[in-house]
Amino acid sequence: MRFSMRIAALAASVAALVMVATPALAARSHATGKAITVTASEFKFKLSTTTVSAPGAVTFTVVNKGKIPHDFKIAGHKTPLLKPGKSAKMTVTLKKGKFPYLCTVAGHAALGMKGTVTVK
Ligand SMILES: [Cu+2]
Fold it and tell me: What is the pTM of this model?
């Protein structure tokens, strides 16, 4: 009798833990949108991915690993001009389609700092 009561108490505390943990997990997965890391250098961008699986918010983390300032522009949104070693985060809501990106510093896009992100 005592043993089964202890089991019941254990089961109740496990259930309580699960109930506490579940909303936290759900909130976290909801907040996690799509994320793309963008590395800028002379004169190219390297993106962690150029394909997004569904429309919605995409957070670009842009890191300037070059030796001169660069920025990153996509879908009408642009980071500040980033000095070497600096980074910026920018969240953009993208519909389905193809979105060209570029560095807006004069001449940089022509030298290779451009490309396309595809949203499926
Ligand atoms: Cu540039």
Answer: 0.73
